[in-house]
Each structure stands twice: as C-alpha cells, then as structure tokens.
Amino acid sequence: MTILSEQKSKTLLAKVLKYSKADEIECNLEGKVGGNIRYARNTVSTAGEESDLELIVQSTFGKRMGVATINEFDDASLEKVVRRSEELAKLAPENEELMPLFGKQKYSDSKTFFESTANVTPDDRAEAAASSITPSKKNKLVAAGFLEEAVTFSAIMNNKGLFAYNKATDVDFSVTIRTEDGKGSGWATRNFSDYKLLDTAKASDIAITKSMGSVDAKAMEPGKYTVILEPAASVGLIRNMMRSFEQRSADEGRSFLSFKAKDGEDSEKAPKNKLGQKMFDERVNIYSDPQHPIAPTAPFSGNGYPLAKTEWIKDGVIANMPNSPYWAKKTGMPYVPRGENIIMIGGDESLQDMIKSTRRGVLVTRLWYIRALDPQTLLYTGLTRDGTFYIENGKIKYPIKNFRFNESPIVMLNNIEALGKPERIDGHMIPPMKIRDFTFSSLSDAV
Question: Does residue 367 contact residue 384 with C-beta atoms inside 8 Å?
C-alpha cells in the first residue's frame, strides 16, 4: 500500500475531505519504498529495506490553522486525524499572513520515475557494493560506502479543487576509500533518477586514484589561490546561496540581495532589493526546471502551485527572487515559488583541460562542514577533504594538506576563469569551476 497510484491517492484523499468541517482543508499524502546497503572496512555491515506512508492534514478556520499527521488508514483513523487538525486549528493564534488555498491547477509532465530504479533488488545492491569493495581490496585500500535507492510519491488535495500527484525515483551512492594507514583518502558520489546510469566501479576508481595519490600530503601556506572546484566542492556554497535567494529577507534588509540607499538618496523611493541588478560574472546562469532530463523534480511545490522553468540569475543579473503568496500580495509582485533543483549552465572544458591551463593552483575534491559567518555578504567557512592537490604548470604535482577556507559564493562567482560541463550532484546540476583568488585561511591536519 505504500506507493499508491494516482487514482487510489485521489480516492483516499477525497474520502478524507468529506470528514472536514473546516473552512479550508488541504491533505498531503506521501509514501516511500526503498532499500540500502552499507559497507565499511571492505565488508558489508548493514542492508535493509524500508516503506512508509503518511497523511498530513491541514485544517483552517479563518486565520487559524492546525496540522495533524497519521500513518493509519482505516476510516476511523482518517476521521480522527481530521478532527485533531481541527482541534489544533481552534487552539492556534490567528496568523495574519495565512493565505487562501490554491484552486485547481494545471501541471506539466516531468519524467521523475524510472523502472530501473524501482526494480532494484538486494542482489543488485550487493553487486554494486562488490564493484566498489573488490578494487579497493585489490589495491590494499579500505572502502566505506553507502548506496540507497527509493521510489517515492506525493499527492495533494484540498477542498478548493486542487489535486496534484507525482511519482519519482532516486538513487544515491557515496564512497570514501582510504589507505590502510589512514594517510591517504579519496571520495566520490553519484546521484541519479535512473539506476542504469549508476556505475559504482567507475566512481570507486576515482576515489581509489585520489586515495593513493593523496598520501604524504605537503603543507602549503594559506592564502589566495587559483582553485579548481569539482562539483562536490562548489555545490554546498551554491546551494546555500540559493537558499538565501528570497524576496522578503531582501526587502527587509536582512540579505545579500538587500538594496541599501546611498547617502543623500531617498530610502523610501529607492528599491528594496537588487532584482534586475548585475551581481555576478556574465557567465553565471542559474535556473530551476522540473523537466530537466537529468535532474527532474515534481512539477508542483509543497503547496500545490505549479513549477515551471524559472531563471534566477541570467548573464550575472538577478532575474527572479522567490517569495511567498503573502509577500507577493503585500508587495504587488507576482508569486514566484522556490524551485526544487539548481541548474547552473557550464562550459565546454573538462576537468583535465582546466588543470592543463593552470600555472599554479589547487584542485579541491569537496568541501564539508560549511558554516555561515555573515548573511549580508554570504561569507562561509569550512574545510577541504578527501583529496586536495597542488597544480603546477598544467599538472598535478603533489598532494597537499587540507585547508580551512573563508569565502563567499558572491566573490567566487565574480572570479570565474573557466566553467566545465555540469554534473548531477545532490539532485542539482553543477559544473566544475576554475576560480581565481579563492581564500584559504588556515591548514587542517584531517585527511
């Protein structure tokens, strides 16, 4: 029962709506069936499968709203969760920003479901793990990895005529491979909707090469360097920046997108945000698109509003800013829902091309433990990890110790020297980037 068809979802949710006595009711039905396998020290440690089905009911009386959740689906339980949400709504304080539910909508088709992923078996997972463990053992290395795949669905229905349904698949794989003495470490990750695109052996070969190549890392002085950031190294900074891409915080002066009036300028007449202003290198183009062929998403947001291709940054210019229905009405702007994926247009250069064109620089496999320092400038700090290398005269010369960085994606995206072909990572499409004057503030002894 965990993955319901569109028709069964519609029938169940219609039954739930009939129990309602509220002014407005909206129901979200979410289900998941998936499996996983985990290995460490070149041995499978755990494997399992999971399934879940959950109903979330939101009831509204005027400006008061209550939410209740249940995972039982007999008639008595369905009525119980509706009554509970209504009780909570009557106890809740009024919310002046609460907006009416959306009515019936039209949605585009988005190919988010692949049979190859839905049909993965325990044997498939074991084979995928073996394809990573075997070459690790052969090279006298130690592998630890995790593979997880799932089929999910979501359905939304309300008493204003809205109904939305989507079924999706996803597979995630990551592996860390280290030398036996722990002095060298390599890492790789892969993320797809279609299981047929996953090659754990190929991904593990990359981690193996980095592990063996990162032994006896040398210390380099912190400072500003030309860096080549693999997609896993830049996705965290780009994702954090896009999470801060919001009209309200900009209008209220809390964001890097807030417009600050100059001395002598009438602040009342000045714009509140930087919509339409150029903030990045003209090669920076970022958008969201539920119909992207490699990184598709559901064609609707969590409130049932349709999602379409939306440009956020166009030729370095702020093209759109997401907002809420309340803030859109308050400011007289169109409602722009936040996209579910981040697609950054890249270039034609390969990672090897970038390395060959670098006289002196640093290759970074990934960044981790990223933390915000200043929301106004989007300054972040964090660490490099699992393979950091010094480049000299177009070649990787030797491994170097990891750095702590202090950098802003705003500065980073104004210091672009080259962009490569985008790759899917964490559901997004991010290109490798060659960036000048990237700031490393200190050394880290961790591998």
Answer: yes
